[in-house]
Records
---
Amino acid sequence: MKVSLNTVGAWVIAGTALLWSGCGSTHAPPADPGKPAPEEHAEHAHPEEGPHGGDLIELGKEEYHAEMTHDDETHIVTIYLLDSAAKASVPVEAKELVVNLTLEGKGVQFKLPALPQESDPEGKSSRFQLADEALCEGICGEKATGRLNVVIADRSYAGTIEHGEHKHR
C-alpha cells in the first residue's frame, strides 16, 4: 500500500481540526476594558460604627464583629458581639471575653464578664462589660494595641484593637 505525503497531511489536518472543534473554552470571557474589575469586598458595605454607636472590631474574615464602647467618666468598657453585617446580636455561651493590651511595653489582660441583654437566650450573652480605669485609659492610649479573644460556635476568634478605632464619649 502506497501512502502519499498529501494523504498523511490531510489526515493530520483533519485530526487536528476534529480535536480543536471538540474542545470548549473553559476560560471566562475577557472583562470589558471599559469597566473596572469588581472588588472582592464590593458586595457589601462596611459599617463605620455598631448599633450602639461604638467602634467595630473584625472577627475572622468578617464572619463576626465586636462592637466596643467605653465611657471616660465611669470607665465602663462594653463589648457587644455582632453578626457579619454588624447589626444583629450574636449570643454565646462564654462567661467572659478576654482583652489583652500592651500598656507601656507590658502585656495586661482584662476579663470582661458576661452581662446578658434582655433579648439573649438563657445561659448566653452577646454583651460583656467591665468598669476598669486601666482598661478604659489603655484603649485610649496613644500607642494602644491589643486583641480581643472570644469563642463563637465552638471556634476561637481574635480581633485587633488599635488606637484610633474608637471615639471618646
Note: Residues 5-22 form the longest helix (18 residues).
---
Amino acid sequence: MVSVKALTNIEHDGEIYTKGQSIELKTDQADALIEAGVATKGRHAQEAEVIEEKPKTKAELLAEAESEGLVLEGINGDSKRDQIVEAIAAARAVKQD
C-alpha cells in the first residue's frame, strides 16, 4: 500500500476523495493516479521515505579531524567510533576556547 495525496477531487472505488486528502492505495493504482497528474505521494509516504544520512566511518571521522587540524587525545587504531566522535567534540571545544 502507498499513501498518495489528491491534487484534485478523485473518485475511486465509489468513494470521493477531496483535494489534499491522503489515500492509501495499491502501488499500481497509486502510480496510475500520479502518472495522470491527479495525485502526488502523500505526506505519510514522504516521511517514510526520508533517508537518514549514514553515520561517518571511523576513517572518515579521522580524516575530517585531520583536515580541521584537531588533536584527538587517546585515540588509536583500536578506538571505537563513539570514542572518536567524543574525542572530536572535545577537540573542537578546546579549539574554540
Note: Strands lie at 2-6, 10-12, 15-17, 22-25, 39-41.
---
Amino acid sequence: MTHTLRWAPALLALVAGGTLLAQEAPPPPAPPTTEGVRLAYKWIRGRKSRLAMKLKGEMAVSIEGGPAGAPNQMPITMSGEASMLQHVSTVAKDGTGTVAASLDALKILMDLMGNSMVMRYQNGKFSMSMNGQNMPMPPGGAGAPGMPGMDPKLLRQPFTMRISRLGKILSVKGPASTVMSSFPGTGQTGMGAGGFALQLPDHPLQVGEAWEETQQMNIPIGPPGAGLGRGVSMNMEMRAIHTLRKIIAKGMRRLAVIDTDASISVPESAGAGPISITNMNTNVTGVTYFDIGRGEISSSKHDVNLSLAMGMDPGALGGQGAGGQNASFSLDGSFNVTVTNTPVTAAPAKSAVRRKR
C-alpha cells in the first residue's frame, strides 16, 4: 500500500498529461486579416514645416593631462531648444524629395560645476555668456573637440538633403552640412536625422513586425580651429531595430507608432591626427510617430546614452598637458531628445475688394 501511494503523484501526472494530449490540438494562429500598412514619405513640392527640438541630460567629463589648472572632473547638466525650418523644393519622378533646411533659433544652457553657461543663436547671431557675463567666441566658433562647430557663418546658411520615399538620406549639401554631419542621424541612427527622416522598409508592415537597419558613417571628430586641423574623421557603425508597435488615431489622422532600439559604435583607436577615439558606444531607444496620411514624421522621443573615451596629443585641448604628455578625455552622458514637426501654413491671400459702380 505504501509503495502504491509513493507512485500515486506520478500516475496522476501521467493521466493528466494523457488527457491533455488526447484533447484536440489548438488551431494554428489565424493569418493576418489585413494586407498590412505601407509607410512611405510623401514629399510635396512647396510643403513647409517647422521642427521643434528639445534636449535635456547630464554628463560626467573626465580629463587627464589637460591644460594647467583645468579640473580633472566636470559634472555637467544641459538642456536646450532648437527650431528649424524645412522646405521641400523639388520632387523627382521616383518620389525623392529635395529638402532645404535652416536653423531658426537655438538655445543651450549648461551648468558646469556651479557655473551657468548659455549659448544662443537667433536672428543670424551667436552669443555666449557665463554667469550672466558675455563671453568671446572661441576660435573656430563654439566648437570643441568631439563637438560640432557653431560657426554663425555656417548656421546662417541653409543646407539641402535628398531623401528617398523610404527615408534614406542620399546626400547632404551646403555649408551647414559640415555641422550636420557631426550629428549621428545624418547617417540614420534610428532617431532619423534630427527628425527629418526614419528609414522605412520597402513592403507593407503588420503590427508587431520589425525591420533592421545598418549604416556605415564617416563623421568629423571636430571642426577646424579646435586644434584638430582638416580631414580628421572617424568611421562609425550604426545598427537599429525598428518595430511597428501599433496604429493609433489622433483626430482625423492615423499614426504609426514605431519603437527603435539602436546602437552606434566605432572601431578601436578610430580617427587620426591629434585626437583618436579609444572607445565609443551610444545606445538610442525611443518611439517615433509617423503620420501615414501626410507621409512624414509627426513627432519622436528618444533616450540617448553615450560613453566616449578619447586620446589627445599635447595641445589638442588648447594647452600643453602636464609635462607635454598626451591627454585623455572621457565622457559618460544620458540625454532625452524630443522632436515635434508642425506644418507651416501660408497666410491666406487678401481678396481684392470690388468697387461699386
Note: Residues 2-22 form the longest helix (21 residues).
